[in-house]
Structure formats: C-alpha cells, structure tokens
C-alpha cells in the first residue's frame, strides 16, 4: 500500500493544552500500521534484564507524558521532522514481565514487522537489553554500526551464574550473533568502577572504539563528534542512548547512575553533530521514573528522543532523494 501524502502532525499546544488529550509520543496520532509510516515511535515497557534498581518498565509512559513539551521544529538545525517524514506513535511492543526469553522473542517479532513495513524505529525503554531483540529484527541480513552513549559498555558475558541476557550484556551478544560490527561501534561516556580489571577486554579487543569519560572531557564535544563519524563511516548506523551516560544531576531517574557524566547540553551538541550519517534507528533507554518523581529524567528522555527523531527524519529524507547524476 502506498504511503499517504499528508503527514501526521502533533496536537498543537496553542490550541489544545499539553495536559489535555491522550498522551502519545510528541502528541502524534497513535497508528498501528508501520507500512504507512517512515518513522515509528515505539515504547518497550520492560526491565526484565535489570540487575539492581528496577523501574525502567515505566519509562515509555512517562516519556510520552513529558514529550508534550516538544514542538515541531528543531531550533538549531531547523529540521522539521514531521514535514520530512511520516511519523506516528506505534504503541508499545508486547512484553512478558515474568519471562525474559519470551519477552525477547515478543519484542523481536514486533520489530520484525516494523522493519518489514519499511519503517525506521525510534524506541523508548525499558532497560538496555531491549536493544538486542531490536537488532535481531533490523540487522538480521547484515551487521550494523552503532553510536552508543552510556556510562557502561554493556559487553559483559554472564551474570548470576550462566545468565547471558541482562542489561549489561546486549552488545556482547549482538557482536556474537553477527548483528553488530564492532569495528563500527563507538561507545561514549564510559566510566565508573568495574567488577574486574579485564571487564572492558571484550569491547576493546573486538575493535570497538571506547571513549571513556576522561577522554571525552579531554577531547571536547567537537573532536568526539569527528571521531564518532569516522568510526560509523557511511554504513547503516543505530544510535543507542542510555540516560545514565548523563551525570545523575541531570538524570537521577535511572537504574545504575554513575557520577561524572555528560551534561545534557553536551549530549545535545553530540547528537546534533551526527546529522548526515546513514541512520536506521535509535533508542533511549533506562529512564526509571520511580527514582525521579520530578519528571526531569523523563523530560530528558523525551528531549533526547526528539533530537534523534530529527536526525532520523533527515536521514530518511536523504535516502529518498535520487542520487546526483555525474
């Protein structure tokens, strides 16, 4: 079925107040058919991979609430995502809160339908393990690159005996399954105490470019952007943003906070510097509203989603243009 020409638009806050109408991501329509969209905003309300402070299962609902603060046009890039692409809230992926493996399968099936519909996913988690089944759906035919903002590498092997699937293991599994090309992965903001001296061995030996927070502070945002673009290259690339990559003074509502992280402004500048890459999806994870009753961390999550949405809409529009004749 051909995609309609009239793009969905957010509810106008100058007409209907932000506290009115049913909450959806960015106040967009709630649609169910990914084939009618270019970009789908999706919630994944699941934190069954969390090893300590749970609560990220409530992230999508609160991010929807706080996304009512977002407007239509990016104030710096002037990207108007809803003019460039058909975007809507596709609802939540189905999950099973008492069965980890069943949840992974359900999430993968949901995103496989999104991918088959020719739609780019932008998701709100949920803990970071949700990215693995998303990769299984969108990277089954070829490995992809990733720009990863986080305090943690998430490349550990096992937890609590022989458990391979937690929010600390998704990217090790993704590399092992051939979904992620480690030579096209950059991890930004890594910091904090570790379990053992060789915790980072897999990430570093596999070829991932790990930018620890100390290096980030030394290089500055512009040089980190340049390095991230170099690593990602021209191939298909995914953005995964864990809010604990930020200093907890900006995002206290998360499961594994680590002091000494990025500021919200640094994160915004970093993301804006990724415009023009071949971006094929993204997520914002680990927003845990029970740890931040103020709603500020959910607002951070919604704002970061809008930043990534603008990048994805620009990428969709670029891919739509025919190549220039020589």
Describe this structure in words.
By secondary structure, this protein is α/β, with parallel strands linked by helices. Helix content is 32%, strand content 16%. It has 10 helices and 8 strands. The protein has an 8-stranded parallel beta sheet, sandwiched between helices. Helix 5 links the parallel strand 4 and strand 5. Helix 4 runs parallel beside helix 5, helix 8 packs across helix 9 and helix 9 runs parallel beside helix 10. It is globular. The two termini are 33 Å apart.
Number of helices: 10
Radius of gyration: 18 Å
Low-confidence blocks of residues? none
Report the strand count. Answer: 8
Structural class by secondary-structure content: alpha/beta
Approximately how much beta-strand content do the residues carry? 15-25%
Q: Main sheet: which strands, in order across? A: 2-1-3-8-7-4-5-6
What gross morphology would you assign?
globular
Major beta sheet, specifics? 8 strands, parallel
Report how far apart the termini are.
33 Å
Q: Average the pLDDT over all residues and give the rounded result.
A: 95
Secondary-structure element series: EHHEHEHEHEHEHHEHEH
Helix content: 25-40%
Tags for this entry?
single chain, 326 residues, alpha/beta, eight-stranded parallel β-sheet, 10 helices, 8 strands, globular
What is the element layout, followed by pairings?
Layout: E1 39-44, H1 59-66, H2 81-84, E2 87-92, H3 100-116, E3 120-125, H4 131-138, E4 144-149, H5 170-176, E5 180-190, H6 201-206, E6 209-212, H7 213-219, H8 221-232, E7 237-242, H9 264-272, E8 279-285, H10 296-320
